[in-house]
Amino acid sequence: MSVTELSAPPAIAPAVERSLSGWGRSSWSRCAVRRPRGAAEVVDALASSARSGRHAIARGAGRSYGDAAQSQGGDVLDMTGLNRVLSIDPQRMLVTAEAGATVGQLMARLSAHGLTLPVVPGTRHVTLGGAIASDIHGKNHHCDGAFARHVTALTLCTPGGEILELTPESDADLFYGTLGGMGLTGVVVEATVRAEPLSSPWVTGDLDRTNGLVETLELLSGHERHRYSVAWLDLLAPGAKMGRAIVSRADPLAPGDAPRPARGRRGVAGSYPGALSRPPLADVPRAFPGALLRPSSVRMFNALHWWAAPRRERGRPLALAPYFFPLDVLGEWNRLYGASGLVQYQFVIPSGREGALERCFALIAERKVPVYLAVFKRFGAAFGGALSFPLEGWTLAIDIPASAPGLGAALRDLDEIVAGSGGRVYLTKDSRMRGDAIEAMYPQLDRFREQQAQIDPEGLLRSDLARRLGLCGAGE
Ligand SMILES: Cc1cc2nc3c(=O)[nH]c(=O)nc-3n(C[C@H](O)[C@H](O)[C@H](O)COP(=O)(O)OP(=O)(O)OC[C@H]3O[C@@H](n4cnc5c(N)ncnc54)[C@H](O)[C@@H]3O)c2cc1C
């Protein structure tokens, strides 16, 4: 046996057959899952799929709600095995990490250098690869744009097995096409992202309880000076109260203003990175009865939630991790929706088309869609690839039990209003749209298909989402 053979890395572990779904647990696929541990294994895994004529797609933490990270009868590359933070450059404020590193992991490592990520989603569990492929947004999109704007370089494994170092200068089309490209241009192996100073592990929050939609829009609109803003909307409130909300706006707290820790307790700064890796307080049990989420109980919950909020509160210090990631305290909360799972429907309506927004809200109320969670916010200018979701306007994300009667028809009608207004539905949350619905929503779709066919002429990369919506150029 030669020395090369002795020191050669072990071959990639064989694929394991699994049923996979997104976070919504509403559409499932049988897939063969491989967990590569380095770029070479990603190349091997893609080559093996190509040889056997099977489709392949990358998967991060599986936090997309729909069917973007699975491929029925195909191969899935579970990227969580590539999860090292490779370097942090505090002077240039850049972090380079493998694609399977999570947002929580990156924030914890950056905090040791007094830095943080400029854009984070509502859960710390998403991976860097998933954040790039969905071009995720946070509560500060109106100030800082989405994740793509802060990515400076990518290492991409192409369907043909090449490893490309991409920057906006080296290949602008492929670089930007990958930002928001839903994993269809290649497998991101590592990436470099701009960080920013972490002024303190606290924000200072203002809360307002509004009485209706007009007041809610006013608080979140053009002259908004806060860096973070988001509203929880009561869409089931009757008449003029519809659109009443709890509007939360916040800004980073200056270091000197951070609350002092109580005596004998761990230091404030010390507790921050800990909060980014803390396990949930409780897990929802496997067989949770979804029937508990009846429309009548949802309506009652919404009303109580609204009444329980203070009318107006100013300058309350809030710890950063629970402020950004409130849902992470409850493990597997998607099981709350029972065996049929949940649909998250998120759309954006362009600024100036507020009439369409009101029609959407009215439709949700008329059809009695049982909306448990409705998160509303304002987006700033669009940036990123052809399939990137955010555009300047208003975005609403609603969680609905997948088994709600009449849901399919109600969402199809909403799709029409959204598309007719020049808006769009967020692909990473979708599990149900049809191909014809998205042509108007993503006017650069043809350009994306061309790019995709160029990089993947054999049609190797396909997710269930891509097949259902016809996102790819070559083949079906
Ligand atoms: C509780 C909760 C809150 C959320 N809040 C927000 C929010 O505030 N804003 C927001 O924008 N989104 C939000 N999301 C959605 C989530 O951020 C995105 O769906 C994100 O893409 C999930 O990342 P992931 O690592 O789980 O990727 P997955 O769900 O595994 O995959 C998502 C997509 O990324 C692709 N992908 C994954 N890894 C790679 C890779 N290495 N190379 C190429 N492609 C890859 C997959 O093919 C797929 O198309 C939330 C989700 C949950 C569950």
Q: Gist?
A:
This protein is of the alpha+beta class.
Would you give an account of this structure?
- The protein has 476 residues and is of the alpha+beta class.
- Among the domains are: 83-198, Uridine Diphospho-n-acetylenolpyruvylglucosamine Reductase, domain 3 (2-Layer Sandwich); 202-258 and 278-283 and 290-435, 3-Layer(aba) Sandwich (Vanillyl-alcohol Oxidase, Chain A, domain 3).
- Helices cover 27% and strands 24% of the residues.
- It has 15 helices and 21 strands.
- The longest helix has 14 residues, at 295-308.
- It is globular, with a radius of gyration of 22 Å.
- 47% of the residues are buried.
- It binds flavin-adenine dinucleotide.
Keywords for this structure?
single chain; 476 residues; alpha+beta; Uridine Diphospho-n-acetylenolpyruvylglucosamine Reductase, domain 3; Vanillyl-alcohol Oxidase, Chain A, domain 3; eight-stranded antiparallel beta sheet; five-stranded antiparallel beta sheet; 15 helices; 21 strands; 27% helix; 24% strand; disordered N terminus; binds flavin-adenine dinucleotide
